[in-house]
Structure formats: structure tokens, C-alpha cells
Amino acid sequence: MSALTVNGSQLTLDDLHDVAVGRRAVAVDGDRLEHVRATHERVQQWGLEGHPIYGVNTGFGELAHVVVPPEKKTDLQVYLLRNHASGAGERLDDASTRAVLLARVNCLVRGYSGASVDAVRLLVEFLNRDILPVIPQQGSLGASGDISPLCHMALSLIGEGRVVHKGAERDTASVLAEEGLTPLTLGFKEGLSLINGTSASAGTAALALYRAEKLLQQAVFLSSVFVQCLRGSSRAFDRRGHELKGHPGQIAVAEALAGLIDGSGLTREHVDLMQDITERSAGMSAVQDVGVYIQSAYSLRCIPQILGPVLDTFAFCRSVVEQELNSSNDNPLIFDNVEETFHGGNFHGQYLAMASDYLGIALGEIGVLAERQINRLVDPHLNGDLPDFLAWNDSGLSSGLSGTQYLATSIASENLDLVAPASVKSLASNAGNQDVVSMSLNSSRKALRLVDNVASILAVFGACLYQAGSCVGVERLSEAGRKWHQLLGKAVAVYDDEFLVQRMIDAVRTFAAGNEGVEFFDQEVGFGK
After folding, report:
1. What domains can you pick out in the chain, each with its CATH number?
2. 182-191 as b/e, with b when 16 or more CB fall inside 10 Å?
3. What's the whole-model pTM score?
4. 166-189: per-residue pLDDT in tens?
5. Could you give the CA distance from residue 378 to residue 280 in angstroms, rounded to a whole number?
6. Which residues of 200-210 are buried (b: 16+ CB within 10 A; e: fewer)?
7. Which of the residues are catalytic?
8. 95 φ, ψ to 5°?
9. Which of 183, 202, 247, 353 could potentially form a cystine with 440 if both were Cys, beta carbons 3.0 to 4.6 Å apart?
């Protein structure tokens, strides 16, 4: 794969995933570097001339009233990094760290921050050589940007702090020396330009959203197999009914489900249900239970109305996150004339905080539906002709897959805590200067946790459906269902109490996250992409 050329305006979630997870190399558009160079030189000249500009010759935050002489320019920036690198907790994982670095590069190359070409190039070298600053997860208010995590990132650029390189955590200075890289000497505003933005929140939110979109595809596909295994009616996915509601996500999910169950020998046609009821009730003169449901339970019938809003929410979140990735999100922003310098608040993460909270709620809903679908598959009072708890042999002696439901239900409950929004939990800081903060990194970190949790619930769902499909007869599934069952069968066997059930769940999750599984769900549930 060729290097991704970053220009500050065209970075997508897919690009970011290629770099963060696929470790795609990065290059910078040459024209943008010239803009970066010109802006940096302009700021250096203004600093020497003593023009009052926040972060160039003033203190920071509530100390903005303090004027700092030009000879202290580097000390001012270095001290900022050192005294705001206050993070705690586990470090961001490698993929999230790479996402943060790329997000910051894309902001800086827009040329309005004042960072030097050397700073941009060194960040790119970190990405391409896989030198990853140790960035603690906790510490950002998402207000004056993600100050604390980005300080930990920026310290590495000046040869301080610690990095992970070749699988080992080490002092940055020794790694830079080995790689022949020269640490930065910070000029006017340069430390501030590296840290005063939303790149940690944006990078982690982008990763969470990319993964969430893949989970939604998986959830829709598994729901189509679920409908078949429980012999649901196909009428619930008739496009005409969904068009009368009008929501694009609902229509798209219904259309996907209708295609996925096409040709199934298990689903029921509505006219057949009507005829069955008519025949059973012929000659009746009193109220009688005919034993045939004219429509299915919500977990079968309302899948488009439940997952459709998730699809629409993800589309909204993508628009917000990609806009933020391609924005100038620091302060102040540098224009051609010193008097036009924009002292504002583009570093504020409220857009990302709310989008990540919406993302979290939508992820929680995928989990809620899947957990209820699992329950209907295993519950002997609800699962029709399927065995008790999907036991392959000797129900009672075997408890089947009943234990897997405990995992799904416990995680679904945990998710109810995680989906509580962080974006409204503002607490003032910095002597009242940061009096309304976004908590955007808290929101995006929770979204990443929800992604992992929902992946586990869907792994249980997939395991139960593999077992259920084996029980009803794989040959009766739709073509898409049969293909999925056969692909998964390379890694999974019917559960018959001869091995730990955890192995089955892990294998299903590994399949879904691997190249073969991702490509399969992309192909079967692409939503027009």
C-alpha cells in the first residue's frame, strides 16, 4: 500500500484506520509544508517584535495576563509541556496512539497553528518508524484541547518522556539517538501548537467509530440468521412499509435483511401464516388459541426500527468526527496579519464529546438487541423447536450454551453504565478560566470500551446462531446464511460439552475481527458503500 499523503483537509476514518491499525506509511503534501513554514516564520518574527499574542509571549490559561520576554520563548514552551503532562492510568494502546499522532499531523499541516516544518516531519517519522509516545489515558478535560495527553506526546518530540519502540518502553532520548533523529528546539508558540487541540479525542473517537460501523454490519447479518433460526416472518422487512416511516437507516437495514434472508427455507411468508390461521380457525364459534402468531416478537420484527437509528447515528457521528479531523482545532490561529490572529476556542471538544456520547448510546443499543436475541435463542420457553439452551445432546445432562448468556447479559448491564453521557458532566478548572469543559476524551474512551464489549456480546450471539443453524439444518438457511456458517465452521465446531465453551466464543470473535470475517460482512452488509 502506498503512503497516505496528508494535506489537512481530506483525512477519512478509513485512512486513519489504515495508518493506526494497518500501519500504513504517511507523507505530507509539499505545498502544505510551505504554508506551515511561512506561518511558523511569521510567528517567530512577531514574537521577536513583541506583539502581544497568547502563548507566544504570555502565560497560559488564567495566567494570560502575564507577559513573558522573548529570551524566554523556549523555556515558556518547554515548561508548558512539563507542567501539563499530568496524565495517569494505562497508556493508550498502539493503534490509538498512532491515531492521535496522525490527527495532530493533519491539523498542523493546515498551516494555521504556528508549528515548524521540523515538528511536522518528526511526528511523521514517529509514525513511520513506529515510535509511540507513552500517553496516559486519563487527564484531559477536552476543553483547551486534550492538553495532558498531547503534552505527553509533545514531550517525546523534544527528547523527554518515554516511548514504546520495537515492543519495549524506553526513554525517548535514547530511542531518538539510535534512530538518528534530532529533538525539537521549541520556538514561539510551538509547544502550545502541539498540545492545544482535540487530536486525542478525535483520534480515539475515529477508531471507535470505524470499529462500531463494522459491528453494526455484523449485528445486521447475525440478525438475519436469527430470524431464520426462529422461523420469523419476512413481511416485517417489506420495503413499502419502511418507506412510509421514511428514516433512511431503517429503510437500509430492512433492505439488507430482506436480501440476506432471500431464498431461506426457514422464514415464514405472511400469506402462509394467514392461511394457517384461517385453516385452524375454520368453523370456530368461540374464542380459541390457534397457536400461530400473526407477527413476531420485537427482537425479530423491529430490527430495522432498532438498528436503523444506529446506522443513522453512525452517519452523523462520522460527519462530525471527519470534520474535526480536518479542522484547525487549536488557539490562537495565525493569519497573515498579526492584528487578525484568531483568539477563540476551536480547541473545545464539545462536538466530539456529544458525537462520542451518541456513538456510545448507539453501540449500547446494538448490545441490548443482541442480548435479547441471545435470550430468545436459548430460552426453552421462547425458542420454538430449538433444543433447550441449544444443547446438542441430552438436555439436562448438558446445559448447552446457557453459560454464554451470562457473559452477554453481564456485559449488556455494564454497558448501561458506560452509555451515560460524559459531555454534560462539566466541572470548572484553571481558576475558572475553563469554566465549561467537554470531557470529550472521556466520551471517546468509553466508546472504545463499548466497542470491545459489544464485540463480545456479538461473539456470543454468533456462537449461539452457529449452534442453532446446525440444529435446524444449514441447508435450510439462505445462501448468505449458509456461506457464513461454512466460513465460521473452519474455526468453530458444534458445542457438545467436549471443550471449554469459552474457546467457541473466542473463535467466533476472532473470525469476525479477522480479514476473512470483515471482508465477508462488508460484502454482505455494505449499506451501499
Report:
1. 4-197 (1.10.275.10), 216-328+361-524 (1.20.200.10)
2. ebbebbbbbb
3. 0.95
4. 999 999 999 999 999 999 999 999
5. 28
6. bbbbbbbbbbb
7. 54
8. -65, -45
9. 353
